[in-house]
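Per your request, structure below.
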């Protein structure tokens, strides 16, 4: 009789354990299957993010003001396939407001990082620190999210070409990662800033698992080669 009771208890415990494991596996699987369909527009203040959002949404060249909250919408890209509805979010660039993008990285499909090419030299450090933070984000790196670096304001004579911006960013990331690597242990597990690229090798964007593209644009100009169509093509490719 006692034997039987023991057996029943063992079977009950085993069943509960199996159910628990099954529940965890199902939760994990459905969590990973969360639909990733969001395109986020990031970059420091005044780079042209809201201008880009408005161009994507209705192809309008409008005067914009410093954003204090995000612009978010689901829409087909202006003058593109109506069937393809994009979820796009433009975040404020102010350093105290920009952190909100982190809530969306688990469902991010693509990142458009906008740079003011005319003031890049002056803002190089801030731009690189923000880009570094995005590249090192757990979800952006694990999901190998594609990144488009839009070198905006090319209408200014002093605007740097995309090749120069790319090289400058690589050099600055190289400097930053050595200082960051030293402080990694202090950070909380979920937000660990991974070392970017290969150790013992100068940083190159090609060393990352993400596909990283650079384009030049002038989002305030309505002319045909403003770069907006390349940005839309990239979004459609990554849809
Ligand atoms: N000359 C020139 N001006 C531009 C271009 N793109 C945007 N601007 C202007 O730059 C300013 C900032 O543009 P926004 O789109 O508001 O910049 P933002 O990145 O959204 O800025 P925050 O919301 O403050 O982070 C505005 O006055 C735009 O009209 C461009 O390609 N050329
Ligand atoms: Mg804005």
């Amino acid at each position: 009789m006692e034997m039987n009771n023991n057996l029943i208890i063992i079977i009950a415990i085993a069943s509960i354990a199996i159910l628990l494991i099954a529940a965890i596996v199902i939760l994990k699987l459905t969590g990973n299957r969360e639909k990733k369909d969001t395109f986020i527009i990031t970059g420091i203040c005044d780079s042209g993010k809201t201008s880009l959002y408005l161009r994507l949404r209705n192809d309008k060249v409008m005067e914009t003001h410093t954003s204090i909250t995000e612009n978010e919408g689901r829409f087909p890209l202006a003058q593109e396939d109506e069937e393809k509805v994009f979820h796009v979010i433009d975040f404020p660039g102010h350093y105290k407001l920009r952190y909100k993008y982190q809530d969306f990285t688990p469902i991010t499909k693509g990142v458009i990082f906008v740079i003011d090419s005319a003031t890049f030299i002056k803002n190089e450090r801030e731009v690189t620190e923000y880009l570094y933070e995005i590249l090192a984000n757990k979800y952006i790196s694990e999901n190998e999210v594609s990144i488009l670096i839009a070198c905006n304001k090319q209408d200014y004579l002093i605007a740097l070409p995309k090749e120069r911006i790319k090289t400058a960013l690589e050099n600055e990331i190289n400097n930053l990662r050595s200082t960051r690597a030293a402080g990694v242990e202090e950070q909380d597990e979920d937000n660990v800033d991974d070392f970017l690229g290969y150790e013992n090798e100068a940083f190159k964007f090609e060393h990352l698992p993400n596909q990283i593209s650079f384009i030049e644009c002038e989002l305030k100009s309505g002319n045909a080669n403003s770069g907006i169509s390349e940005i839309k093509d990239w979004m459609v490719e990554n849809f």
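The longest strand covers residues 108-116.

Regards,
D.
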